[in-house]
Amino acid sequence: MISRREILKRSPLGFGAIALAELFRRDGLFAAEWSVAAASQQPHSHATARSVIFVFQGGGPSQVDTFDPKPLLQELHGKDVPESIGKAIPKIARSPLNNLLGSPWKFRQYGESGIPVSELHPELGRCVDDLCVIRSCQHDSPIHAPAEFIATTGTQVGDRPSLGAWLTYGLGSENSDLPGFVVFKTGETIRPPAIGTGFLPARFQGVLVDSEKGIPNLGLPSGFTRADRESQLRLLETLNREHLGKGRGKRQNLKSQIANLDAFDSELEARIKSYELAYRMQVSAPAIFDLSQETAETRSLYGLDQKETAEYGRICLLTRRLVERGVRFIQIRSGGWDSHSDLEAEHGKKCHAIDNPLAALLIDLKRRGLLDETLVICGGEFGRTPASQRGSSKPGRDHSPSGYTTWLAGGGVRGGQIIGATDEVGYSAVERPIHPNDLHATILQALGLDQHELVYEHHNRREIVTVNGGKVVQEVFG
Amino acid sequence: MLTRLRTLIAHCATLAWIMAGAVIADEPAATKSKSLDFRRDVFPILSGRCWECHLGGDASSGIRLDVRDEWLGETTGRPLVVIGKSGKSRVIEVLEARDPKIVMPAEGERLKPAEIATLRKWIDNGLIWDDVLLPPPKVKSDHWAFQPIRRPNVGLVFNLPVPAGQVENLAHDPIDVFVAVKHRELGVTPAGEADRRTLIRRLSLDLLGLPPNRDDVEEFVADTRSDAYEQLVDRLLASPAHGERWARHWLDVARWAESEGYESNHSRPFAWRYRDYVIKAFNSDKPFDEFLRQQIAGDELPPYSDENLIATGFLAAARISSNEEDKWRQRNDVLVDITNATANAFLGLTMQCAQCHNHKTDPITTRDYYRLQAYFVTGQPIDVALRDPALRRDFESRRPPEYEPSLALRESLLESARRRFHDEVRRSLKTEELAAYDTPAEQREVEQERLARLVDLKFQASVNVLDRYIPESDRKLYDEIKRKLTEIEKTSPRIPQTFAFYSPATSPHRLDVLPSIGFYPLPFDRAALPLERGGIKIRGDVHNIGPAVTAGVPAVVGQVVNLPGSLSSITKTHGQVENLPLGRTTLANWLTDPRHPLTARVWVNRIWQWHFGAGLVATSDDFGVRGTKPSHPELLDWLASELIDSGWSTKHIQRLIVTSRTYRMKSGEQAENSNSPLATNNSPLSSFPRRRVEAEVLRDVQLAVAGLLERHIGGPSVGGLGESLEAREKSNRRNLYLFQKRGNPPSMQGLFDGPNEASESCPQRHVSTTPLHALFLLNNKFALRCAVVLAQRIEPLAGPDRERQIDLLFREVLSRPTTESERLVLHKFLDEETAKRSGGSTTPNAPTPLQMLCHVMMSLSELSSLE
């Protein structure tokens, strides 16, 4: 085996951690192996997390109704944003300054930390000592898709790799039978760039998994028995090996240098292997989706027995099972947070659907000793305006990227703390503004990756996750 | 150091004297007024007080003051002067600064008030410059790709001593000569010629993207004519399937798709016409210079033709965010997309870096970037009606007569709603906002411009918002019309149209633009577009407005091939930058100038890559300094010269390549003695590089061997207008015709590394291998359907004889007979499966042994590889 240093020296690119496994990739050596990362197998520094659960609330949950209480907002209900506060609010389209809307929900303090959480999240409230609540997230796009791309890819264009793709590229998966990057969704459809690979190879793409049906194309075609499939696979391997053998003529003479391997040969090897893996997956993956293996207590903990929480609960429980099996990155997207009108009914319903399951996920990970090594992030593409939206009969809120909340838990995060603050009505971040690029740098650090070391050479640029670099939010780790 | 600078300045001064003497006679105007004279008044201040540090390419802080563009910040994006406004000019600020850390000159005495006054006057009067005295600097680069193409003398190369026994193998093809020279250099022995079965399959997959049929294979194998191979090549190049296969290559480069991308991702139901245009272009061997010209400037070319217009689908393939309220950002994103794609596709340069800063490695500045972009600013992608009389007649005969009046009525109702909405917005504005907004754009101060843009955002209203401003009295009528239109649009044909790029400023044709879709569609304003001007966006930020620039080409390439009338147009007109829209025809003519160092090289390199899997320049979209060097530089130049000399014939280059012995080598064999580090990745071309075929080919091949493939060419895409995307999965047409919805490709295309988002020019596909591929091929209905049909076809053809079934199956699917060992394995498989079923205890729809075998064939690695 060649040392990493040696390979770096040989890399035509000459620098960075790209080279190692990217070289392997180009030679197709491990092409079928999800377990092998492309970038670097060694984290750059001490990692506090092994996997990531990215809980994304598409549409934009309201900060002032969940984790960022504002007494002044209640007082000023129906009035305009005071000039003293308004002048500091970034001039972004659709940020009305009139007709403030007090939160219909009450807050109370939870846990030892006493962090206030609204009555929309009673169950998460009970986990608050594990949460690090960042109240000062901020960027400048008030439109869903661009904002979601900022949150998931770092810029608003939607042409860069998503965070999950980057991490799978950087760290691979720990389970070769399963994809390294799994995506679940409820409600509206996924926005492909949010789980896409941008300029990275397609194999790092998030695999969208149906929480009921599981991984696509996993079931045998109708009429086929397992025995049929096994004999097909035996035949297939024999014929494929025959094909592989054709290119084998003179290979023995060669030194076993990576540089001299026939790229296509190793790709063929990989392909032969991919059929074995596919079959192993076909055999083992359905078991993951068989939740009858869980105890009644666990199923009930996740709210599987309640109509309103069953779907999200199932996703959360599957998430825990995937984390247990070493899947690197799980992205859960729930749609329907875009409460322009009738905030009270819409947010009420959405929060109820996720509150219990998310809390259950934290509790369950913790009691299995997994929370320490699993980083959980929860937030939307932006928050919502403290002001009421014009023209709707039942009050709602518009999009607001100037100041919104994202919480983190597990994976080395110091829980029970609040970072940053918005102004007195909860409009924009006035203390410790944190951009999604900063959050990405922080997530990388938890996984032991240096944002400037995980690179991919593209169009003459040494691309990094955080585009032009983010600032790690060190306080997160306490 | 200092001495060197002094000498340089002294030189300049002397030069100035000589020049001054030489030119004065021509310029009586210079002495006409007592007003400022650059040579007399400004030059001495600059040379005496500024240039000691700020001169030449290695000037202090990167700020050079001997070039007019640099005063305007055209490469740094940080202007030192605002023309006409000395009070707002950075240079005056630092000259007058009190703070010793800021004041300039950094050493020595301050400038005298009279000197500063002179400079102020100079700035206020338009920064008049003397191009003769201080010409714009030449951008020099000794990078190979920017040097002229030189046709190598093949005879000379051929006469180089070649080891005995190899000369006669070289045949007469110059390609083989260049490759052989490299072999010799590296001590590599090339592989021998592949057998005929391999060759016909290779050619078919490469040129048509389809497997050869069984009869053609046998015929070719038996063909004893000496030019059997060449005949086959001609036949394949003439097949209409060739254009379909090669169109897909170009569509990758053109980042073409059939929807807008971004959030709304509306379909572009008429973008298919561009796809068909590309197919036809390859089939008819359209000269590449014409192909390029039509795509870059089709709307401008006289006389008008539908084909020219359709070709601009290349530019129009840009993504558009039709949910973007900020219309500057919206338009800018489109322009950036078009500029990048044009530079990638035709120049083979990664100019996108220069959107925000000067290119880090290539001699390309931010100014170069925005000058290229300036060619596109007066146009935009839009649906345009076609003029073909036959199409129009057909359409008019089928269109319900009430459609267009209804459309017009809805527009007029919306227009009145828009007026009401605007009035309401105006009433809500503060005085200074209104003042900024009402000031004509060219008269606004920078702050006013910023304010005006914010105000303008308030005027943006989606159709849904306007809906609320329909007066009560019109409400019933409006709702009725809306309903009626939806109804008509569901069933009636649409006006014949294409998704094109059109500039009402530079096109001499007045084209019929059709309404756009989306919440906030990119507005098409026939009157406003011609006023759009190119300009630098500082750090790529659309609201950070830098200096204006005229359209122009990257200076470094411009040195090699001058662009008439464009290069120094800025400096020619003193004072305000002259900034007239310049047609894209100029750009196209420059790109296709036979002396252009990049266009022909980039194109032949792509052709080479599509034949061999890798280009002679491996980075086929980056011929810049950081790109790879050509493995065979002389071969590249020879092919480029051949392209130009053949009248830009793509088929000529293809024919040269595929008839070479280099192309006909056996695949998969590693060269012996390839111990040179240069021999990696088969760069010496010691054997034919085997590779997996693209997603589209894999799907087409499966359909073809099953006998399911539907073979008509062109037309609206499957899963497009009026159909669900699901229709694509059941379709038996070539993958090329399946609707290209961004982010939602047909399943096989998405899985096997085909285009997905098509967000930028794709020079080369990745090849990835994951278990998901295996799961798809084994479990998805598609491959199974092909397998079942294939079995159905084989059975009657071969009869019940198993030996014959196996033989036929291999000939049909892989174009070859089975080997002895394969035959044994296959018999064993069929025997065992038949035995299993003889008990009669199988599931009702259990596959037959032959179906199972056919199903395995669909997953074979040989089926999906180009050997």
What do these coordinates show?
The complex is a heterodimer of chains A (478) and B (867). With 478 residues, chain A is α/β, with parallel strands linked by helices. In chain A, 32% of the residues lie in helices and 16% in strands. Chain A has 13 helices and 16 strands. In chain A, a hairpin with a 4-residue loop joins strand 2 (107-110) and strand 3. In chain A, helix 8 (226-246) runs antiparallel to helix 9 (263-289) and helix 11 packs parallel to helix 12. Chain B is mainly alpha-helical and 867 residues long. In chain B, 48% of the residues lie in helices and 3% in strands. Chain B has 38 helices and 6 strands. In chain B, the strands form 3 sheets. In chain B, strands 1-2 form a two-stranded antiparallel ribbon. Chain B is globular and about 105 Å long. Chain B starts with a helix and ends with a strand. The chains are: A alpha/beta (478), B mainly alpha (867). Chains A and B meet through helix 6, helix 8 and helix 9 of A and strand 5, helix 34, helix 37 and helix 38 of B.
Note the gap between the termini of chain B: 62 Å
- Oligomer state equals heterodimer
CATH class of chain A equals Alpha Beta
Instruction: Estimate the strand proportion of chain A.
Output: 15-25%
- Largest interface between protein chains, with number of residues from each side: A-B, 78 and 88 residues
Q: Compute the number of structural domains of chain A.
A: 1
Strand share of the residues of chain B?
A: under 5%
Helix content of chain A: 25-40%
Instruction: Name the shape of chain A in a single word.
Output: globular
User: Which outline of chain B best applies?
Assistant: globular
- Helix run count of chain A: 13
- Element order of chain A: H for helix, E for strand: HHEHHEEHEHHEEHHHHEHEEEEEEEHEE
Strand order of the largest sheet of chain B: 1-2
Average pLDDT of chain A: 85
Taking the sheet with the most strands of chain B, its summary is: 2 strands, antiparallel
| CATH superfamily annotation of chain A | Alkaline Phosphatase, subunit A
| Count of the domains of chain B | 5
